[in-house]
Design goal:
The chain is mainly α. It has one domain: Na+/H+ antiporter like fold (Up-down Bundle), CATH 1.20.1530. It is 80% helix and 0% strand. The protein contains 16 helices and no strands. The chain starts with a helix and ends with a helix. Belongs to the auxin efflux carrier (TC 2.A.69) family. It is found in: Cell membrane. Keywords: Cell membrane, Membrane, Transmembrane, Transmembrane helix, Transport. It is a multi-pass membrane protein.
Length: 313
């Protein structure tokens, strides 16, 4: 466990570098946008295609597919439980959709992939991708609808359909299916293409952590106001989510590696896309931004506990 924690600490050193670079104005919103595009459209897809084909056989992958039921059940269960919690602690009606998203979704791209690589190596990525695929579909359908239901109702439903199609068909998910196709069809990847993808994929963790560091500095941790909603977002992210994964995983006799990596992925800070969507659809941007900053800061505190739980499964 200590080795895993040290590996993750290396990533947080890169986060610290991102904060420093943002403080010195080397990184800003414009550079974050550029790095994010490089990460999502080039580095991450390269990593995904290679990991699927280098670490799994066709038989191993097909045996893994049914276990996608675990992240689906966990995410939907978290959404239901967070809706009930929002009613109990009296979250404002206009913020309930946002609260549900904050409690149930994790930063798979910016934290999940780098953390999985640090703890399990590339062999763990196909497991993580099952959670990523589940979350992508749920987030951009049900999650988006809950976030800004009124806007879509006024537009007659056309707007939400266009947004869902645009966001679900993204490069990481496409790379996931390309990698699966290559694996299932037994198509060999030429050595030069393999090296090319490996070189591009090597940027994944560094780009993701630099962006996270810049986000932390630009959003400002000192501006966080502790509220009931914020406290419960942290509780859901780092306590309820991993516990629910373990309980449901054991209940349905899911593969142990799937339980461990799903626990790791589901107990991450919130996605920074939630803040972007909060701004776009005019919901509580302050709550979304504070939740992002607080969840990133709290993650370092909860990480040893999360790793202990994972290694104890």
């Amino acid at each position: 466990m200590l080795h895993d924690y040290l590996n993750v600490m290396v990533l947080f050193l890169v986060v610290g570098l991102g904060c420093l670079l943002a403080r010195n104005k080397w990184l800003d919103k414009s550079s974050n946008s550029l790095f994010t595009k490089l990460l999502i459209n080039i580095a991450l897809p390269s990593t995904l295609i290679l990991s699927i084909n280098s670490d799994f056989t066709r038989r191993e992958f097909l045996a893994l597919v049914p276990d996608i039921i675990l992240p689906v059940m966990v995410i939907l269960s978290l959404m239901i439980l967070s809706f009930i919690t929002a009613k109990i602690i009296q979250i404002e009606k206009k913020d309930i959709g946002l609260f549900i998203g904050l409690c149930s979704m994790s930063s798979t791209i910016f934290f999940g992939i780098p953390i999985t690589l640090a703890v399990y190596g590339s062999h763990g990525l196909p497991y993580a991708l099952m959670t990523y695929a589940s979350q992508t579909v749920i987030y951009w359908t049900l999650g988006l609808y809950l976030l800004e239901k009124d806007s879509f109702e006024k537009s007659g439903g056309t707007s939400i359909f266009r947004v869902v199609v645009k966001e679900i068909i993204n490069m990481p998910l496409m790379a996931f299916f390309v990698g699966i196709t290559i694996l299932l069809m037994g198509i060999p990847i030429p050595q030069v293409i393999n090296e090319f993808l490996s070189t591009l994929g090597g940027m994944t963790s560094a780009l993701a952590m630099l962006v996270v560091g810049a986000i932390i500095y630009l959003s400002g941790l000192k501006k966080i106001t502790i509220t009931k909603g914020l406290i419960f977002v942290v509780i859901f992210r780092f306590i309820i989510a991993p516990v629910m994964v373990v309980l449901l995983g054991k209940l349905f006799a899911i593969d142990n590696n799937m339980i461990k990596i799903t626990s790791l992925i589901c107990s991450l800070p919130i996605p920074n896309t939630t803040v972007i969507l909060a701004e776009k659809y005019k919901v509580n941007t302050v709550f979304a931004t504070e939740s992002l900053s607080a969840s990133i800061a709290a993650y370092l505190v909860f990480l040893p506990v999360i790793l202990f739980v994972i290694h104890s499964v």
